[in-house]
Task: structure prediction
Amino acid sequence: MQIVATPEQIGVRDGRRIHGRYTVNRDDLATGARHDDAVTRATFGVDIHAHDKEANDKKAIIHADFKFHPYDIPLRALIAKDVDGLLMAGRCISGDFTAHASYRVTGNSVAMGEAAGATAAVAARTRRPPHEVAWSEVRAVMEGLLKEV
Result:
């Protein structure tokens, strides 16, 4: 691995995101989208921070201009569309700008990380790429881990 770029400052809320097999978007938040392969249900509203000091002086945080509904983040949003074997979790999953302002919080990231890890484990154990692993297999691994606790 090699570092290609770093932000100019720490605390940058927006960043690079993969192009996944599904892109979480504004409509998902507006309709409360449900998915059979949901790794978590996001409940944190839209929280867009000002892009610069001038905008911050006027209004530091902008909330959505639509009614927000809790929505599912599907496993497909964690799996890269163009790079076999690549899974992401947290704020770098596949999503648009507005959805990112909701799903990027820690609680969602933890659930996504667990699902990505379980998917990677099943994929490695069965010698398949992550996009060929069924959500039912991942869910079974995660439920098995819960029973051990």
Remarks:
- DSSP finds five helices and four strands in the chain.
- Strands lie at 38-42, 48-49, 61-62, 71-74.
- The chain has a mean pLDDT of 86.
